[in-house]
Amino acid sequence: MNNSIIQPWPQGMLSVKLTDFAGQKKAVELMDKALKGDRVNHAYLFYGPEESGKFTFSLTMAKALNCREGKGDSCNSCISCGKIDRGIHPDVSVVEPEGKGIKIEQIRRIKTLSSFRPNEGEKKIYLLKDAHTLSLPAANSLLGILEEPPSYVVFILLAPQLSLLPDTVVSRCLCIPFNRVPRREIYEFLKKQKSSLSDRQLWTAAHLAEGSIGRAVSMLNSDSWSQQREQAFTWWKGFIACSQKELFSYVEELSREEHLLDFLNFIESYYRDCLIYQAAGIEELIVNIDYLEEIKEMKPGSNEELIQKIEVLENFKRKMHIPLNKKLALEAMLVKMKGVTE
Ligand SMILES: [Zn+2]
């Protein structure tokens, strides 16, 4: 466990006020009411899919709770907000799994530390990432302090699903759901925050972000993003035209790719665009609008075949976090994708 935030503000993420936090209306409304009415709960459980903004929201909430200027929100300019942005606020701690999960020793340490009043802020905040990995003894130990925490302590637990946590823990928290953000909302958010960029860039990022504002922002912040997108398009055109014999050089190129998930997401978006154009013929629905003419002519398979190829890609992406022989797995995937047309 760390005494201060180990990962400061998520890379590339824009620091916004709690009330400007996009895409999670329910969480914002609840917290805004609680903060302005001085009725903050002692334990929250934010649950929902990965990259839906749970961690960023909890940091925003930590800022609002300890802000010196924001009057119930985060100002993003006072000393306290600045320290949370930089990950050095002494009263905000992030607890992450050590090894397979959060251990009882980590919870014991929280108990000891929470008996001291905050150093600088109003509240001491403990953010438990991946709270579903709490070992049973750790969860039981946590119950003790969740029942009767000191008045200045706020726990924020983050987890993908409620059902993965013991009922006893869930019942002691105020549970708030998080969802993937619709494209339109991501686009509106980007438009406000990144007004210097073209509409096409914003719209493309909103489409490719898979419901994650954080991902959309880091795409737009990255210099290499457009370059990688172009590279993926060139790879894809070659892959579609290549013979089974030439396939291995495409496996090689993909296995050297540093940001493989982003690369595969680009490829998937090209297939989706082909499918949408073939099936519906609606140009406005195409994400990679700048490649429209080529996408219209590509015809990499029938509608049914394109759906299958997308499924093969999706399956691979789902298993990517499992340790595997990357090259072999990529080869199997590309052979399958090629095979769909034969
Ligand atoms: Zn502030």
- Give the helix level as a range of percent: 40-55%
Number of strands: 5
Q: How far apart, in Å, are the first and last alpha carbons?
A: 54 Å
- Lateral arrangement of strands in the main beta sheet: 2-3-4-1-5
Largest sheet: 5 strands, parallel
Class inferred from helices and paired strands:
alpha/beta
Q: In CATH, what is the class of the largest domain? A: Alpha Beta
Mean pLDDT rating: 89
* Radius of gyration, CA atoms, in whole angstroms: 23 Å
Return the string of H and E elements.
HEHHEHEHEHEHHHHHHHHH
Total number of domains: 2
Extract low-pLDDT stretches: 1-6
Fold-level CATH name of the largest domain: Rossmann fold
CATH architecture of the largest domain: 3-Layer(aba) Sandwich
The named CATH superfamily of the largest domain: P-loop containing nucleotide triphosphate hydrolases
Q: Ligands in the structure?
A: zinc ion
Strand content: 5-15%
Tally of alpha and pi helices = 15
Shape: elongated
